[in-house]
Amino acid sequence: MNVYFLSGLGADERAFSFLQLDFCTPVFIPWIKPEDEEETLPSYAGRIGALIKEPAPVIVGLSFGGMLATEIASVNPSAKAILISSAKHHKEIPFYLRMWRKFPLYKFVPAKFAKAVSKPLCRLFMNARSRKEMLVLNNLLNDADVDFNLWAVDAVLNWKNNIVPPNVTHIHGTGDKLLPYSYVKADYTIEGGTHLMIMNNAKEISGLLRSLIRS
Questions:
Q1: What is the pLDDT of residue 130?
Q2: Where does the record place the AB hydrolase-1 domain (predicted)?
């Protein structure tokens, strides 16, 4: 059974490398370039969704990928979207992050400086707990496309979704610093799970995915 995976902001399939996915055939959807710097998250999600040819796909979205999966699920009731460490409603993004849409200073930050600053911030919010996790995280940060990330940050901050499709299931950790648990309504809770629980709690999440996808 094919299961389609959308990774987090600036990441790729390596973000899922700690999971045990022997119960499915994982298909990792690559990022495509935004049409322009003004493209909205729903518009981009529509183009990503067009890459998935199955009429009733199962989509696992991590963080930013979960927001895209929500938009895909909203226009395709036959899809099954599973969100991990993500948000499915604009109010699940903390107000202190959303406020930056009124002061979009990040748009004027030079790419080299943005990349240098993003690394320590990501390490602070991601909570890598082992040497292997840190190695994967560092490689993802080093390979990140800064221009894509800056566009995506703007798209997320200006995301206005206020409808949660019934075909969305949300898994979230109580220790998430980037998207705090108190802001979201999770269907499944990972106690102590951080924003990087896809790695930290890989065994638990693998078992949960297996159960949700098979059902």
A1: 75
A2: 45-199
Q: How many CA atoms lie within 13 A of 16 on its CB side?
A: 23
Give the per-residue pLDDT at 64: 96
Predicted local distance difference test score (pLDDT) of residue 129: 67
Regions of the chain where pLDDT drops below 50? 108, 110, 113-114, 116-117
CATH number of the domain where residue 103 is located: 3.40.50.1820
Boundaries of domain holding 12: 2-214
User: Which H helix or E strand runs over 52?
Assistant: none
Per the listing, tokens 């979205």 go with 61
Could you tell me which residues come within 8 angstroms of residue 172 by beta carbon, excluding any fewer than 6 positions away?
A: 83, 84, 85, 86, 179, 181, 184, 186, 188, 189, 190, 193
Quote the pTM value.
Answer: 0.89
- Contacts of range 201-204, beta carbons closer than 8 Å, 24 or more positions apart: 201/173, 202/18, 202/19, 202/20, 203/20
Question: Residue 168's closest CA among 90, 69, 34, 99?
Answer: 69
Domain count, the chain: 1
